[in-house]
Amino acid sequence: MSASAVTSSVATTIDANRRAGTGTLIGHLPIGFPDLATSIDAAVALVDNGVDELELGVPYSDPVMVGLAIQKATQAALASGFRVRDMFAGVEAIRSRVDVPALVMTYWNPVLQYGPDRFADDLLNAGGAGLITPDITPDSAAPWIAISERTGLDRVFLAAPSSTDPRLADTVAASRGFVYAVSTMGVTGARLNVDAAARGLVARLRAAQAENVCVGVGISTGEQVAEVLDYADGAIVGAALVTALAEHGVAGVGRLAAALAQGRTR
Length: 266
Fold this sequence. Notes:
- The structure is a single chain.
- By secondary structure, this protein is α/β, with parallel strands linked by helices.
- The chain has a single domain, classed as Alpha-Beta Barrel (TIM Barrel), CATH 3.20.20.70.
- 48% of the residues lie in helices and 14% in strands.
- Helix 2 packs parallel to helix 4.
- The longest helix has 23 residues, at 239-261.
- The radius of gyration is 17 Å and the shape is globular.
- The N and C termini lie far apart (39 Å).
- 52% of the residues are buried.
């Protein structure tokens, strides 16, 4: 299957929102936190309250990119017995209830342990849209790129303000769905001000011919969503939603999603 023959559900949603004059809101939650059933209900609540696409995290024992809120959530999920197979069951259950793209964010080691081809096939069968892979770069991802070509799954790579222009060009060329622009150096977590470096990074990705760029890391309010959507195609919110789920349950995460969604049309 060639890249040109693939229809990306993620890109299709972003494009539809762009034509409608709104940006795309992407919500991140770990599968299995605080337990599998609640994580499914929480993901559905995001969509019911205005989130356009889902980013579902695979709990991992060494989550080097994420901040304390998501670290605690993933550790709790692992302590309660989460297994990778639970992620596929979770994606399938969520997709049976909501019709939005569901990307899975995972470090590469769990994929290797499960078997990359088997992982991709099971994700496809569960209704998943593709993978966000924070710890592999396009030059080390040839096996995953080949598998995604075979299955049609989207592949989202990360770009950072420290990336060189050649690396950004490689990232744009290898990504399908969108390019994930990391708004600030360091780990994820809600911040009072989204790093101004994000705007410059998005401009550099546009210069490298990126069609869809979504910004994550540090976004926690509707105002910040609006700010990001002024120059990017999508805003990704994670730590703030995980904190809301931990402190206020499914109802709380739904309320925050609704507040964030107000930024889509500002």
